[in-house]
Amino acid sequence: MTVPPADVLKFDVHRNECVIGQHVLRFTHEGDDLVVRIDVQMRVGFGPITLFRYHHQGEERWRAQKFVSLTTRTDNNGTPLQVKANRIGDAVMVEATGSPVRRLPVDALPLTHWNVACMQATLFNPQDGTILPDIGMARGREIVTLGDGKSVAAIRYSLAGKAPIDDWYDDKMVWTALRAPVKDGSVLRYVRVG
Predict the structure, then answer these.
(1) In principle, which of 52, 116, 142, 165 could form an S-S bond with 44, CB 3.0–4.6 Å?
(2) What pLDDT shows up at residue 163?
């Protein structure tokens, strides 16, 4: 688990070639806990008309390199969702809007992307609490272009399954980029800007 040097990660979210939002993670230490605050906002529109909007906020806690808890609130184009997950004893208990409480293995992690450990764990969706049957695989080193035009070498990991996603991590294992197909045939890309 690697915290970025400036304690913040910022990405511009692109849909095809248009910027539609931003994904920001802020890292702080509170006592023995590492706290990660997540804020994602996206809007797809045609001029002043909004066709799709998305806002996701969350707080993730880690202690001694182990996942402790997650709380999220999401507005997915007008549909409100909430998730609470807690590591209790030998399990991770996940409670989500409209679903019964799920008991997951103690090594389960939310797919919040910033931590490369999620590429090798049982995953759950931090937006709706569903279990993700995705399997992460390292694909090798590639060059990734950042928002300032600089290039960095990064290892690409692919999640194959329900949510096919590619994530890149630099040599320090800091999350560097993301690419994912969308149901309408477009492609989401995260370009790191901070």
Answers:
(1) 52
(2) 66
Do 2 and 174 contact (CB within 8 A), yes or no? yes
The series of mean pLDDT values per 10 residues for the chain, 194 residues long, is: 90 94 97 97 89 95 96 96 97 95 95 93 93 87 96 94 86 96 90 92
Distance CA 185, CA 25 (A): 27
Please check whether residue 49 is in contact with residue 36, taking contact to mean a CB–CB distance below 8 angstroms. Answer: no
For residue 69 the two structure tokens come to 């808890």
Extended strands (E) in 31-130: 33-46, 49-63, 66-76, 79-88, 91-96, 102-105, 109-110, 123-124
Q: Which of 166, 193, 190, 171 is nearest to 2 (CA)?
A: 171
Partners of 181 in beta bridges: 187
Question: Which conformational region is residue 87 in: left (phi greater than 0), alpha (psi within -120 to 50 degrees), or beta?
Answer: beta
Q: Which two tokens stand for residue 81?
A: 């969702």
How far is Cα 12 from Cα 42, in angstroms, rounded to an integer?
10
- Which residues on neighbouring strands pair with residue 145, listed in sequence order? 151
pLDDT of residue 176: 97
- What 3-state class would DSSP assign to 117? helix
Class of residue 92 by CB neighbours under 10 A (exposed 0-12, middle 13-18, buried 19+): buried
Give 17's contacts (C-beta < 8 A, 6+ positions apart): none
Question: Could you give the maximum distance between any two Cα atoms of the chain, in Å?
Answer: 51
Distance CA 153, CA 141 (A): 6
